[in-house]
Amino acid sequence: MNLEDLWIGDLLWVGEESATFEGIDKSTGMALVKVNKEVRTVAAEMLSLRKPEQFDPVMDRLNNKIGWTEKKAKFDLEKNVAFKSTLDLHIIHFPEYNRSTSNLNELEFQLSKARKFVQQAVDLKVQRVVLIHGHGKGKLRDELIKMLQEFEVIDRCEVLKDGAALEVWMDFTGQ
């Protein structure tokens, strides 16, 4: 192992002991590693990088104590940034919808689009989305509010644009 490639704080194995890289001893050229609270000088060939997927009993105990017992999906920054956080549900924005050939009426179609949109936001852990439903008679808004109750992460909804849109806030702290 090339010690020059390591960063302070890198996780290592010294044999079967978990260690943290602390630097290079200038006088010997050997690695300074911390095992428990003791700093040791160790030859590079005695070290191996600790891979995150390897079992670590210390982290396992900590995760269980905190309640972090299941692995979380890796955060995908690119998908999250590409996600548009506003969905306009006016039917003119869905050229694929054809009233005469669709097996869904307009309201069902709009709700299915909204449900899929909110599920994508939940999957990406987006904290705030806006659903534009328009003024109308309030039927779509009422159905959206019912549909949003299916999602446990919904924290609150606010009315925007003089009642033409819902701002939906999500809380992922319990996940």
Keywords for this entry:
4 helices, SH3 type barrels, alpha+beta, 175 residues, 4-stranded mixed sheet, 9 strands
In short, what is this structure?
This protein has helices at residues 57-66, 77-82, 106-124, 139-148, and strands at residues 11-14, 17-24, 31-35, 38-42, 47-49, 86-88, 128-132, 154-160, 165-170. With 175 residues, the chain is α+β, with helices and mostly antiparallel strands. The longest helix has 19 residues, at 106-124.
Percent in helix? 25-40%
User: Strand content of the residues, in percent?
Assistant: 25-35%
CATH class of the largest domain: Alpha Beta
Count of domains:
2
Question: Counting H and I runs of at least 4 residues, what is the number of helices?
Answer: 4
- CATH architecture descriptor of the largest domain: 2-Layer Sandwich
Q: Would you count the extended β strands for me?
A: 9
End-to-end distance: 38 Å
Unreliable runs, pLDDT <50, ≥5 residues?
Answer: none
